[in-house]
Amino acid sequence: MTRPASFKYSKTSPEIIRLAVMLYIRFPLSLRNVEDLLHERGIDVSHETVRYWWNRFGPMFAAEIRRKRVQQLRAFSKWKWHVDEVFVKVNGKRHYLWRAVDHEGEVLEAVVTKRRNKAAVLKFLRKLMRRHGNAEKIVTDRFASYKAALRELGALEKQRTGRWLNNRIENSHLPFRRRERAMQRFRRMRSLQKFASVHSSVYNHFNQERSLASRDTFKLTRTAALAEWRELGAA
């Protein structure tokens, strides 16, 4: 049996690579934690191998997930966007991670910038609109640069602000924050951008909103998500 092109020069089976990448991205584990978990399953690889797999295959898996989900949810995700930013230390210096989610918590976009101003908001919103179209409502906090950027884009009437209106995205920051602590922060802006993009796609893939579904429905959707993951890169 011929291997897919993405795994062509890898001596390890695709199933093990997919498992290692999933463990590292999906759960708040360090590279050495993943190495220990694989060893417990009889798979002997070093944490540096896990790092190599994540760097090589993580973006590829994320791109495949994103391509499928953008096509499926493009119209559905236009009703309402929640937009917010969090600061992240990169090599001791403060950077800003801008994130957008739809009304159901689906992460739409993540962009890293060095500054928190109108230009940064415009960069983020233009990328978001280029990929997902235009939303009917855009929920933000009262940061003045959002208003200035939306006015320039001709979408100021779509802005909504309020004390609790943006709780949806405030809560969506938490999985990333847990991963950030496990990774002991980031050393390069490029690494932060890469991980934020990949993490958001994998989070979308496995996020089942278990509190809103019955146990039987949750088990079915979880099984389907895992089955789809095991097919990534197989084409």
TrEMBL record:
Keyword terms of this UniProt record: DNA recombination, DNA-binding, Transposition
BP-aspect Gene Ontology terms: DNA recombination; transposition
Keyword DNA-binding attributed: yes
InterPro entries on file: DDE_dom, IS_Transposase, RNaseH-like_sf, RNaseH_sf, Transpos_IS6
The DDE domain, residue ranges: 79-208
GO molecular function: DNA binding
SUPFAM superfamilies for the chain: Ribonuclease H-like
Role this protein plays: Involved in the transposition of the insertion sequence.
NCBIfam families reported for this sequence: transpos_IS6 (NF033587)
Name of the protein described by the UniProt record: Transposase IS66 family protein
Species whose genome carries this gene: Ruegeria atlantica
Lineage start: Bacteria, Pseudomonadati, Pseudomonadota, Alphaproteobacteria, Rhodobacterales
